[in-house]
Amino acid sequence: MKVREKIEEKERLILIPQAAFSVKTMGRNVQEKKDDIRTDYMMDRDRIIHSKSFRRLKHKTQVYIKTPGDHYRTRLTHTLEVNQIAKTIGKGIGLNEDLIEAIAMGHDIGHVAFAHSGEELLNKLLPEGFKHNENSIRVLTKIEKQGKGLNLTGEVLNGILYHSGFSSESKASTLEGQVVRYSDKIAYVNHDIDDSIRAGLLEEKDIPFIATRVLGRTNSSRIDTLVKDCIYTTLKNIDNGIVQVALSDEIFDALYVLRNFMFKRIYKGDILKSERNKAKFVLEQVFNYFSKYPDKMPDLYLDIVKKEGIYRGVADYTSGMSDDYCLMMFHNIYVPKFVIY
C-alpha cells in the first residue's frame, strides 16, 4: 500500500461523512497520475505555496500601506492566520484539513497591491469589473507557470472562488470551503482591530460594547469565542441534517457589528483616506502607462493582450504587482532621474 493510500484510509476513519474525501475529488482539468505520497489536496496546497504569486503576498498590503513597523499584518501573514483558524475549526468539526489548507493558502492570491484600494481602482477601470476572488482563480489557472496554471482540483478552486463576501447566499460546495470563508472574516476583523490599536488609530474603548460584551474584550478572546461557536453551531447543524458551516445568530450579529465598525472607522474612514487616494493614483498611472505601451510588459501578458484585449492583459500584469514593485515601477516611469553629475 502506498503512503498516499494510507493517508486516504486514515481520512475514511477520522473524518465525518459530510467531509471532502481525497479519493472522491471531482478532479483536475487535466488528468494526472496520482502521487505516491501526497493526496490531491496535499498536492494543491504545495503547488500554491511554491508559486510565485504566493511569495508576492509578503509585500502586498493588508490594511496599512508602507508602514515602518514590523508587526503589522501583510497579505501573507493574514493568509497564515486564516489558515490556522480554519484548520482549528476544521479539526473540531471533523473535516479535511489538507483541503482547508489549500483553499486558505490560495484564497487571497489574486489580491492587488495596496489592499482593497487597488481592487476598487481596477474594478472602476475594467469594463467587466474586478473582484479579487475571481482574480485568484485566474492567477491559479491562467497566469501561474507562464500561463499553464497549477491544474488544481475543483474543490480547491471552488473554495477560493466563494471565500469572499460577508452575508452572500453563494457559498462553497464543500464544508471545508465554507470554513475558510468564515475564518477569513474572523481573522481580518480581529487582526485589523489589533493593528489599528497598535497604530494609535483606535483604542480598546472605541470598540462597540455590543460586540465585545458577546465576543470578548481582547483579540484572542474574540477569536476563541468565534472559533468555538463556529465548531459547535456547525456540528449542531449537521446533527439536524443541515450541511452548512455557520455561526449562531448572536455571535454572527456581534461579528457583523465589528465588521461594520471597521469599515466606517478604518477601511472607508477619513483617517486613511489620503493614503488610499495616493495608492490609487500610483496604480492608475502605472495601469495607464502599460495600456499605452503594452510592449513594455513581459511576453506572457503581451500574449494575453492579443487574445483577450488590452485591459485584460494590463490588469493581469498590474494586479500581480506587490506594493513595492508598483511603487518602484511608478518611480521608474514618472519620476525624473539625475542624468548629469
From TrEMBL:
CDD domains documented for this protein: HDc
One Gene Ontology molecular-function label: dGTPase activity
Entry keyword annotation includes Hydrolase: yes
PROSITE patterns to which the protein is assigned, alphabetical: HD (PS51831)
EC number: 3.1.5.1
Zinc-finger in keyword set: no
Pfam family, one: HD_assoc
Parts of the chain that traverse the membrane: none
Keyword set, alphabetical order: Hydrolase
HD domain boundaries: 75-189
Entry-linked PANTHER family: BIS(5'-NUCLEOSYL)-TETRAPHOSPHATASE, SYMMETRICAL (PTHR35795:SF1), SLR1885 PROTEIN (PTHR35795)
NCBIfam families xref list: PRK01286.1-2, PRK01286.1-4
Name of the protein this chain belongs to: Deoxyguanosinetriphosphate triphosphohydrolase
